[in-house]
Amino acid sequence: MNKYHIILDKIIKKGKVQSNKKGNITYLLNQKLELKPTDLLEIFEEHGIARNKLKTELELFTKGERLTERYRENGIEWWDYCGPILVNSYPTYFEQLPDLIKKINKEKRNSKNYVLFLGRTDVESNQQPCLSLVQFQIEKGKLIISAYQRSSDASLGLPADIYHLYLISRQINLPLKSITLMLANVHIYENNVEPTKSLLQGDKVKFNLNV
């Protein structure tokens, strides 16, 4: 198993169950997922990821595009439930990313912690980012990315976040050493438990979006 599938398997076997407004979830708290470049390659080769859509999604995020219609025009339909506009969601924060990347590439300071903070809790939002903070550090000429997730849908959201972070790393002119995700609450929704088991057995599956 690749490291992503290992954490799916761990949730299935060791997770606890709780209920929220979206239904029952099987969850684990405070999990760490550290991925080297070889781990990323394994995940992308072994796990189906909508690479083109996620690449386009990130581009729209960084442009600050808030209209869900623009995402739908590019085949990205998973934001439709939010309504016509994304209110204080990912584009609000990711539009700061291009300037931050320019700063990192210009300075490349080992002593500097470059941070992109997402999701203030004191503002109205129709989809508060699950990815709460991304930190960029440089050690011995290599890039280390650390990300904190307050909540992570392991079946759908987590692989997308991993791929987004990888795409971001490609924009920084340094070799990547690792991407580490701190998963405060990583979970599988009840209706995706059986498909996840099938996935881990090598079957092709389609997960259900829970909103």
From TrEMBL:
Name of the protein in question: Thymidylate synthase
One Gene Ontology term from the biological process aspect of the record: methylation
Pfam family, one: Thymidylat_synt
Keyword annotations from UniProtKB, A to Z: Methyltransferase, Transferase
A GO CC term assigned to this protein in UniProt: cytosol
Single Gene Ontology MF annotation: thymidylate synthase activity
InterPro entries per the UniProt record, alphabetical: Thymidate_synth/dCMP_Mease (IPR045097), Thymidate_synth/dCMP_Mease_dom (IPR023451), Thymidate_synth/dCMP_Mease_sf (IPR036926)
Highest taxon of source: Bacteria
Coiled-coil residue windows: none
Organism the protein comes from: Weeksella virosa (strain ATCC 43766 / DSM 16922 / JCM 21250 / CCUG 30538 / CDC 9751 / IAM 14551 / NBRC 16016 / NCTC 11634 / CL345/78)
Residue ranges of every copy of the Thymidylate synthase/dCMP hydroxymethylase domain listed in the record: 3-203
PANTHER family (alphabetical): THYMIDYLATE SYNTHASE 1 (PTHR11548)
